[in-house]
């Protein structure tokens, strides 16, 4: 199975909004609602930020939102803050009952 | 609040078998999917596989021939065995709970909602 495609890096200034894309196929991202986004700070375990394409776990800021169109899912962070600087990964369930991650995107807050 | 803790050797010799255990607390292990994910130094996340509480397993095709995941519900633990390791298997290994979504009698892996802190395993002689 191939990894989902994410941009290697994105950047934005404090207060701005950024969007990270996650492109798969109809056998994973496009075929199921089970797309998630994780935030990972250096040396830390990943943290769930978005699940089921659009839902936020309790305690996650509403500045984080998710969406999907066709085979591409997106994570949008609004009102960027310095603490948002981290690596972000998407994941999806697949038609073979497997799980696939994206390659990861490094977010830099300028 | 579910908590997970990985344990096992931090150093494994090439061609040996890597063995890790994940201990679960704060919740039942008799539901959901129990998973292993790894991250080589400076690289991205790689899904290794999961075991459903009933014992059914699914593995990453690229690792399938070398991976075994098992669960011991009485001890609230699940384990990872990766055989014939090489330097390419050096990574931080995370255990994670996979939340499930069930509909019409079919259950799906939905998301990794709880993660262990991770443990670095180095493959070297």
- What percentage of amino acids of chain A are in beta strands? 35-45%
Give the distance, in angstroms, between the N- and C-terminal Cα atoms of chain B: 39 Å
H/E topology pattern of chain B: EEEEEEEEEEE
Total DSSP E strands of chain A: 9
Share of helical residues of chain A = under 10%
Give the overall silhouette of chain B: globular
Q: Are there runs of chain B of 5+ residues with pLDDT below 50, and where?
A: none
H-E order of chain A: EEEEEEEEE
- Treating each run of at least 4 consecutive H or I residues as one helix, how many helices of chain A? 0
Give an account of the 3D structure.
The complex is a heterodimer of chains A (110) and B (125). Helices cover 0% and strands 44% of the residues of chain A. With 110 residues, chain A is an all-beta fold. In chain A, strands 1, 3, 4, 7, 8 and 9 form a six-stranded mixed beta sheet that branches. Chain A has a three-stranded antiparallel beta sheet with strand order 2-6-5, with no helix packed on it. In chain A, β7 (86-93) and β8 (99-101) form a beta hairpin. Chain A is globular. Chain A starts with 8 loop residues before the first strand and ends with a strand. The model of chain A has no long low-confidence stretch (mean pLDDT 96). By secondary structure, chain B is mainly beta. Chain B contains no helices and eleven strands. Chain B has strands at 3-7, 11-12, 18-25, 33-39, 46-52, 57-59, 67-72, 77-82, 91-103, 106-115, 119-123. In chain B, the strands form two sheets. In chain B, strands 2, 4, 5, 6, 9, 10 and 11 form a seven-stranded mixed beta sheet that branches. Chain B is globular, with a radius of gyration of 14 Å. The A-B interface holds A 1, 3, 32, 34, 36, 38, 40, 45-48, 51-52, 57, 89, 91, 93, 96-104 and B 35, 37, 44-47, 50, 58, 60-61, 94, 98-99, 101, 108-113, 115-118.
């Amino acid at each position: 199975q191939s990894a989902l495609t994410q941009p290697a890096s994105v950047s934005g200034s404090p207060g701005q909004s950024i969007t990270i894309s996650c492109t798969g196929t109809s056998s994973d991202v496009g075929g199921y609602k089970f797309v998630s986004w994780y935030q990972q700070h250096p040396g830390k375990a990943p943290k769930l930020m978005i699940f089921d394409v659009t839902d936020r776990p309790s305690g996650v800021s509403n500045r984080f939102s998710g969406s999907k169109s066709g085979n591409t899912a997106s994570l949008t962070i609004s009102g960027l803050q310095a603490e948002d600087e981290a690596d972000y990964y998407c994941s999806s369930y697949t038609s073979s009952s497997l799980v696939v991650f994206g390659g990861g995107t490094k977010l830099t807050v300028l | 609040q579910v908590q997970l803790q990985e344990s096992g050797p931090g150093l494994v010799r090439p061609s040996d078998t890597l063995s890790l255990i994940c201990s679960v607390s704060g919740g039942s292990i008799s539901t959901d999917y129990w998973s292993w994910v790894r991250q080589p130094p400076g690289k991205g996340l790689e899904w290794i596989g999961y075991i459903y509480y009933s014992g059914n397993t699914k593995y990453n095709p690229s690792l399938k021939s070398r991976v075994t995941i098992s669960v011991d519900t009485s001890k609230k633990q699940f384990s990872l065995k990766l055989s014939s390791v090489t330097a390419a298997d050096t990574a931080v290994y995370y255990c994670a709970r996979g939340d499930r979504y069930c509909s019409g009698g079919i259950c799906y892996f939905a998301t990794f909602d709880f993660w262990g802190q991770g443990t670095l395993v180095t493959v070297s002689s």
